Amino acid sequence: MRGRAWLGAALVLGAQLRALWLAAAVEVHTAREVVAVNGTNQRLKCTFSSSSPVSQQLSVSWNFQPEDLSSHEPVFYYLKEPYKPPSGRFKERVTWDGNIERNDVSIIIWNLQPSDNGTFTCQVTNWPDVYGTIGEVRLRVVQKVNFSEIHFLAVAIGSASVLMIIVVTAVIICRQRRRKARDKRLEVADTEL
């Protein structure tokens, strides 16, 4: 019986340790999709949380998977300092825009082109948290800006304001006409008497 109790305790302890190990993993947070205009610059935001304090061995890897699903391309690497890619489509077009102390490992891609359509991945390791999620950002480069929510809001507010001015003007005109008609009736009634 003692052997079974010991085995049961070891299994329970192992399950708890595994749960703690998974909870200690680095969590990476990104926007799921970003739309940008051709020829502009775009910040690809990536933040992380870790159960361990930020270590000197923290590393960040940004990679790119084109829409045509050809091979992955390195975009950016960080280990104690930022390292730009020595070659490839992002050479001279990517800069570090993160702040490690604020758990921000974002980058900026310059002069976006339609060939930049695809998925960017952001992976963070913070020793001893070396496992965790990989953040993904799907970038869509468009030729011109779509009618955004801000434009819609501006049109809605402008339309509501114009409609309100029209209603107030109509009410004022109706009141003035009623007053004139009433004054005319009183004038006619006074002349008849």
Automatic annotation (TrEMBL):
UniProt entry keywords in alphabetical sequence: Disulfide bond, Glycoprotein, Immunoglobulin domain, Membrane, Signal, Transmembrane, Transmembrane helix
Subcellular location field: Membrane
Main location: membrane
Keyword Repeat: no
Transmembrane segments: 150-174
GO biological process, one term: cell-cell adhesion
Protein name: MPZL2 protein
Keyword Glycoprotein attributed: yes
GO cellular component annotations of the record: plasma membrane
Record's signal peptide: 1-25
Gene name linked to the record: Mpzl2
Originating species: Drymodes brunneopygia
Family note: Belongs to the myelin P0 protein family.
Membrane association type: Single-pass type I membrane protein
